[in-house]
Specification:
By secondary structure, the protein is of the alpha+beta class. The chain has 24 helices and 22 strands.
């Protein structure tokens, strides 16, 4: 019997040869040239090495021209000049080492990228592809593609399997590993009727669940789509290196030219340029940024591309939405204030009957309050939800409208503004065009909101602003409670976009969670979506998606971005400083071209290892910003 894994070795070797073919070909040509030289065929050895290296230089030249045409910077120029120079002065061994250095550098970059993005890849690997669906009679189980699952289907989830779609637990109780979604390492205990998001890993017992959403609308599939987009990003994260490319290239050419001019020996030019590797510029930044994105993914934060990290690290202003962002998004009914002619329970029953047809978080709290009082809710003959305003429904013989003051005032001119305490909000109700009363609710701030703002200030970000569609009194109360000096109330989505556009302290990061936040998230320099509640429009519009219901992750995202940029810059400077030092020494003829090429490979390796630090979590950052919770996946809007 063949030992396990023995047959994998040839296929793995073939895979490596195919992936890193230029490295393999360079080594083969080097062996051939060395063999010819040792056999006394020095001319043939020189021709084989020279022709191969010049052919490689031509390929890099074509790539450099394409990069320039695409608007990038051709930092391959140094490598091309080094190859040509070493061939022209007869340093064929050095030319081969320079080619090996370039090919090996790209191979190291590929390895480093794979290591840095392993957290992103782990999310992609866990993407469920199929589901075990019960037949209509509830007995037989069939395996179906995940896209074939429909809302209401009863599914079997076996032990240690991934829940394929957002679902509701049908069994009495179960435990799920939700760390890939929430970042919480402890199993989450669920009971019958609880929501179980896709991507959760079942415990030790098989369970039955009922599909609540199709695959395309389920949380984990949306996360995977964001991760896939982030994983495809590569070249554009090097903008930070572009600042150094031209000065480094010109300085290297100038130093080599001076060494040639002073010594009168063209070999000196080649000896300098073999040490002028562009690898610190073309490798360090991508590796650092991909490492930062992977570290963020491990923390439950998906970043769309490396350029976002660069902008976020430099953010001067952070703007917050209120409901579901700075507050819990789970308001509680505090008081019912019926107008003359209406009883409190009747007002609540009418309002809840209309709010059944609204997706707003306030609607859910009103329906829950009516249910707790055992009030009978009526079906609506018709219902029309007005985004950010409220809902109008035909309940029996009455037209009931529920929503914000300005919306109800337009339908019922006798509507009066209710007095509320700081932090409270009023939901107004009209019946048949007459004011019927108000429901007073309170949406308390998140437990760690104050701590988050304090940590944000400690990072040096003191320009904080609150934008909300709430009434002036509600906004003022929350702003005062959290210590936010700048706020704007009663904002429509267009008002938020206009305000963010007018802020002068840029870049601006906007944090929101609701459907109505999508426009401003898309227009901000960096849009950050609190994606745990399943606000799809907000998540799709954002540059950063926080997968856990923890506002403290905003500070963590900024910290990761700043460390990533710092590591990228440090790695670039390390590579540049080492290269310049070695070039200065080589200018005096101390370092032969062959030795210089080998030394530059050491510099490249050190640069990559330094850049990989971005994927690690510093010990100073290993404190929680808040306890992550996975809340119900409900799309929200400002009241």
């Amino acid at each position: 019997m063949t030992a396990p894994g023995r047959n994998d070795s040839p296929s793995r070797a073939a895979h490596l040869l195919t992936r890193y073919w230029l490295v393999a070909l360079t080594l083969a040509v080097s062996v051939l040239s060395a063999s010819l030289a040792s056999a006394g065929a020095s001319t043939a050895a020189a021709w084989s090495a020279g022709a191969f290296t010049l052919l490689v230089a031509a390929g890099y030249t074509v790539r450099m021209v394409r990069t320039l045409r695409a608007g990038g910077l051709g930092v391959d120029l140094l490598a091309v000049v080094a190859i040509v120079a070493t061939v022209l002065v007869g340093e064929f061994a050095a030319a081969l080492i320079v080619v090996l250095m370039l090919a090996g550098g790209e191979a190291l970059e590929d390895y480093a990228n794979r290591r840095a993005r392993r957290e992103l890849d782990s999310l992609l690997r866990r993407d469920p592809r199929s589901a075990h669906r019960y037949g209509e009679d509830g007995s037989a189980v069939e395996d179906v593609p995940i896209d074939a699952v429909r809302v209401g289907d009863v599914l079997l989830v076996r032990p240690a399997e991934v829940v394929p779609v957002d679902a509701v637990l049908l069994d009495a109780r179960a435990a799920f590993d939700m760390s890939s979604i929430t970042g919480e390492s402890l199993p989450a205990d669920k009971e019958k009727g609880d929501d179980v998001p896709s991507g959760s890993v079942n415990g030790t017992a098989a369970v039955r669940v009922r599909a609540a959403r199709v695959a395309a609308d389920s949380q984990y599939q949306q996360i995977v789509a964001l991760v896939a987009q982030a994983s495809r990003t590569k070249a554009r994260v090097v903008r930070i290196a572009d600042r150094f490319a031209v000065p480094f290239t010109l300085s290297s050419l100038l130093l080599g030219g001076v060494a040639w001019f002073v010594s009168g020996d063209p070999v000196r030019f080649a000896e300098v340029l073999v040490l002028a590797s562009p690898c610190p510029l073309i490798i360090a930044a991508p590796v650092a940024f991909i490492g930062g994105m992977s570290r963020a993914a491990k923390a439950g934060i998906i970043v769309r591309d490396g350029g976002v990290l660069e902008r976020l690290a430099d953010a001067k202003t952070v703007v917050f939405d209120k409901t579901g962002t700075l507050t819990t998004g789970r308001p509680v009914l505090r008081e019912i204030r019926p107008a003359e002619g209406f009883a409190a329970d009747d007002l609540l029953a009418l309002a809840a009957s209309a709010e059944q047809y609204s997706s707003h978080v306030l609607a859910a709290s009103i329906v829950a309050a009516a249910t707790d009082r055992s009030l009978r809710l009526s079906r609506a003959a018709s219902a029309d939800e007005r985004a950010t305003d409220g809902v109008v429904a035909r309940i029996g013989a009455h037209t009931v409208a529920v929503g914000k003051f300005s919306f109800i005032r337009a339908l019922a001119p006798d509507t009066r503004r209710e007095r509320i305490s700081p932090g409270e909000l009023a939901v107004y109700v009209s019946v048949d065009g007459a004011y019927a009363g108000a429901l007073i609710e309170r949406d308390p701030p998140r437990e760690n909101a104050t701590e988050m703002l304090r940590d944000l200030a400690a990072l040096g970000t003191t320009n904080v602003e609150l934008l909300t569609g709430d009434a002036q009194e509600t906004a003022a109360g929350i702003a005062d409670e959290l210590g936010i000096a700048r706020y704007r109330a009663e904002c429509l989505p267009a008002d938020k976009v206009a305000r963010v556009a007018s802020i002068t302290e840029r870049p601006v990061a906007m944090v929101g969670d609701g459907v109505n936040d999508a426009p401003v998230l898309a227009s901000a320099d960096v849009g950050i979506a609190m994606g745990a509640k399943g606000a799809t429009a907000a998540s799709e519009s954002a540059d950063v998606v926080i997968l856990v219901d923890d506002i403290g992750k905003v500070v963590e995202a900024i910290s990761i971005a700043r460390r990533t940029v710092a590591v990228a810059l440090q790695s670039i400077w390390l590579g540049i400083a080492a290269s310049i030092l070695l070039m200065c020494i080589a200018a005096f003829g101390v370092i032969p071209a062959v030795v210089g090429a080998l030394l530059q490979e050491v510099v490249d390796l050190a640069t990559i290892l330094a850049a990989l630090r971005a994927a690690a979590t510093p010990r100073s950052d290993q404190r929680p910003y808040g306890r992550p919770e996975l809340s119900g996946m409900v799309e929200t809007r400002e009241p």
